[in-house]
TrEMBL record:
This is Helix-turn-helix transcriptional regulator. Residues 32-41 have a biased composition (Basic residues). InterPro entries: Cro/C1-type_HTH (IPR001387), Lambda_DNA-bd_dom_sf (IPR010982), MLTR_LBD (IPR041413). Residues 41-88 form the HTH cro/C1-type domain. Residues 23-43 are annotated as: Disordered. It holds the Pfam family MLTR_LBD. It comes from the Bacteria. It comes from Streptomyces achromogenes.
Length: 277
């Protein structure tokens, strides 16, 4: 990724190709053809037939030569390609048909939510924006993240910590899945904010400096994971299993509150000891 901002036409073309090539024609019940398939997935003419558009139109979209698709055409392509809700939103964002990127949250709202983060104690909580920049955190979260308080303010970003901070490299037991989920979120944010130079710069930096990020980014997975479970390997507290929940403020959907809570009694006891130090 070399440009500072997003080339939405090229990304729309690449995304359509990747999703077409990832579909299994047998599972969709399409008729078999005598001639062998030279490439994986559906043919362009099959996508065109399923979406009710011309094959030439699909070709032009996949070559970044087509006009901006209408909302109706996008909906038909999403159905034809069996996109999930997050992928559908991504497609609409790339075509500029969903909503423009929201403005930066106003300082008053961020300050109010920062106070709320403190009220979540003794649960570990932090406030993030769409770039994964960490805007606020409570003492429990600072103790849970190894070495967090030594990180310069300019590097207080959840993805940067996971990729670049030495003390965080082995923090998540399933680092691959954590990265996959985080990158799927960043890709969705990237499409919703195509002119966000700070976000594009972060993504370019991560792709240049971390092979795992570059590999997973190229897979074009899209999604926002709102809850789940992680196993953390804390250098002082040992293995801790936490459930996490992501909360979106109604008036500031570009911000998100991330809350961790112990998933079992042993983990709760470990967290209590860690927080009491």
């Amino acid at each position: 990724m070399t440009t500072r901002t997003m080339d939405t036409a090229q990304e729309l073309a690449a995304f359509l190709r990747s999703r077409r090539e990832g579909l299994d024609p047998d599972r969709l019940g399409l008729p078999s053809h005598r001639r062998p398939r030279r490439t994986p997935g559906l043919r362009r003419e099959e996508v065109a037939e399923l979406a009710g558009v011309s094959t030439d139109y699909v070709i032009r979209l996949e070559q970044a030569r087509g006009p901006r698709p209408s909302a109706e055409v996008l909906a038909a392509l999403a159905r034809a390609l069996r996109l999930n809700p997050s992928e559908r939103d991504y497609l609409f964002d790339l075509a500029g048909r969903r909503r423009p990127g929201a403005a930066e949250p106003d300082a008053g709202a961020a300050a109010s939510l920062a106070r709320l983060v403190g009220d979540f104690s003794p649960l570990a909580a932090m406030l993030l924006d769409h770039r994964y920049d960490i805007l606020a955190w409570n003492p429990e979260m600072a103790r849970l993240l190894p070495g967090f308080e030594t990180v310069p303010p300019s590097r207080r970003n959840a993805m940067w910590l996971c990729l670049m901070h030495p003390e965080m490299r082995g923090f998540c037991a399933d680092r691959e899945q954590v990265l996959r989920d985080g990158i799927a979120h960043l890709r969705a944010a990237w499409a919703a904010h195509p002119q966000d130079r700070a976000l594009s710069g972060l993504i370019a930096e991560f792709a240049a400096q971390d092979e795992d990020f570059a590999r997973l980014w190229s897979q074009r997975e899209v999604g926002v994971n709102g809850r789940g479970r992680k196993v953390l390997r804390h250098p002082a507290a040992g293995a801790i299993t936490v459930d996490f929940e992501v909360l979106l403020p109604l008036q500031d959907p570009e911000l998100r509150l991330l809350v961790y809570r112990a998933a079992d009694e042993k983990s709760r006891e470990s967290l209590d000891r860690l927080y009491a130090r």
